[in-house]
Automatic annotation (TrEMBL):
Gene Ontology MF terms in the entry: metal ion binding; oxidoreductase activity, acting on the CH-OH group of donors, NAD or NADP as acceptor
Upper classification of the organism: Eukaryota, Fungi, Fungi incertae sedis, Mucoromycota, Mortierellomycotina
InterPro entries according to UniProt: ADH-like_C, ADH-like_N, CAD-like, ER, GroES-like_sf, NAD(P)-bd_dom_sf
Keyword Zinc: yes
Protein name: Enoyl reductase (ER) domain-containing protein
Length: 361
């Protein structure tokens, strides 16, 4: 099946990928990318991670996607073609995250928060807003075209497979720790030890925080958390553990939670004047008494991935401190098996799909 003709499509080439069809079962599909503009690069994809957001989009948890739609926003590959402004980058191994364009001039862009720009473009289920048109498609594919300003050179000491999850899970957990000044003298908690949480523990440990507390409902994560750098483990199902840890953490990153999560109990782990940073997206509205915030000057804030500089800083930090995601690799040709593996909660802790280009990388 091919997309219908549109003036913003380059009909001289066809990219192929695995597209959503309204069910978790993805199907092969081809599309024409937008014409290669002066600021665009074309990337031959070698690796793409599978994020929980991809799963939510595929299953319709965030609303129905138009059909067909290619997801995937933890993309790594090699630049094989480029517009006039990025010819010197052909041959580079690069990564692409969730945001692939922004206006560059607004208050958020000048503050290096391009991910908050009202004219930003996401890597899939979106359109480019630069006046040249074109729909965006993600990394469950053989190639992708995006703006060169939003691709990041992969440090040489990070493998391409390990680099993929850094483009989302990595920067999503790194950014709030930087923004809220994690480091010596701070106690950091991480709720949920999974694809995001296992990265957050490593960052906090490398930032030399006084305490790095892993908080999980699965006691099986206890030993793995210590290997990642946690100094303490709390079983969130154990009332004694929760009582002993009350009001003890300056910053808590909330990366995952049960559908019936006791938000008041989780917020009670935050120290006076501390912050709960919400990284995961609850599917239902939160219900918390206002007094939980007012009487202890506690705040709950959100954090969305990171801007261009933050992403570059994160990659440099990972390279310098030898921080890597724990990954399992699977062939992209078995995309549906890989998605099923993630949906069943089996990975420790991230699945990265490899294309045929991975062999040549």
């Amino acid at each position: 099946m091919m997309s219908t003709f549109k003036p913003s499509e380059d009909h001289s080439v066809t990219f192929t990928g695995w597209a959503s069809t309204g069910t978790p079962n993805l199907k092969p599909w081809g599309y024409h990318p937008r014409p290669l503009g002066p600021k665009d690069v074309e990337i031959e994809i070698s690796h793409c991670g599978i994020c929980g957001t991809d799963i939510h989009c595929i299953t319709g948890a965030f609303g129905a996607l138009p059909e067909p739609e290619i997801v995937g926003h933890e993309i790594v590959g090699k630049i094989v073609a480029a517009g006039a402004e990025f010819q010197n980058r052909i041959g580079e191994h690069v990564g692409v995250g969730a945001v692939v364009d922004a206006c560059g001039d607004c208050k958020d862009c000048t503050a290096r928060n391009e991910q908050l720009c009202s004219k930003k473009s996401f890597i899939f289920n979106d359109t480019f807003k630069d006046g040249h048109g074109g729909k965006t498609y993600g990394g469950f594919a053989d190639r992708v075209r995006v703006h060169g300003d939003f691709v990041y050179k992969i440090p040489e000491n990070i493998s391409l497979a390990e680099a993929a999850p850094l483009l989302c899970a990595g920067v999503t957990t790194f950014a709030p720790l930087i923004q809220h000044q994690a480091g010596p003298g701070k106690s950091i908690g991480v709720i949920g030890i999974g694809g995001l949480g296992h990265m957050a523990i490593q960052w906090a440990a490398a930032m030399k925080c006084d305490e790095v507390v892993a908080i999980s409902s699965s006691d099986s994560k206890r030993e793995e958390s210590k290997k990642l750098g946690a100094t303490k483990f709390i079983d969130s199902k154990n009332p004694e553990d929760m009582k002993a840890a009350a009001q003890s953490m300056d910053i808590i990153l909330c990366t995952s939670f049960a559908k019936d999560a006791d938000w008041a109990a989780l917020l009670n782990l935050v120290a006076n004047n501390g912050k709960m940073v919400l990284l995961g997206l609850p599917e239902a509205p939160l219900s918390i008494e206002a007094g939980a915030f007012v009487f202890r000057q506690v705040s709950m804030v959100g954090s969305l991935i990171g801007g261009k500089k933050m992403t570059g800083d994160m990659l440099d930090f990972a390279a310098k401190h030898n921080i890597r995601p724990w990954i399992e690799t699977m062939p992209m040709s078995d995309c549906n098996a890989a998605v099923k593996h993630v949906m069943e909660g089996r990975p420790r802790y991230r699945v990265v799909m490899e294309t045929g280009a991975a062999v040549r990388a």
